[in-house]
Amino acid sequence: MVPVTRLTIAMTVAGLAAGLAVAIVAVRTQGGRSMIQRMNPPGLSAPTGYSHVVSARGGRTVYVAGQVAFDAKGQLVGKGDLAAQTRQAFANLDTALKAAGATFNDVVKVNYYMLDASQVPVVRDIRSNYFTAALPASTLVQVSRLANADLLIEIEVVAVVAE
Fold it and tell me: What is the pLDDT of residue 158?
């Protein structure tokens, strides 16, 4: 067993601080009242279009209910077409976020519910048009069915905006 000394503890703390500093992907300040920090710490796999860790301090939290491929009139867009449904769900998210005074850069968490997770490349391609620099924490879950039998995807987000 190695004896623990003040030097050992100081070196450990300094190493952790340096590792955390390197792991910080982006820090965003909104009017000095909220801060969003996105990180991909060493020891975790390289993410594909998301951040492993997002923390937010200050500001107002906005929860957007799961959005699906219904247009403003409640009509299904893209029956049987995952790309069309994903585009409509993201368009709906954009509308909802703007109504709350938020943008996709303010999103800290996104959850995807899909019938077929093997089609995630279709979603990633469309997602990259919305999440460009500030990548949220992300979860994808394959489900057996959504609220309507014709729906292929549902997407919900949480955002943090300045007050």
Answer: 97
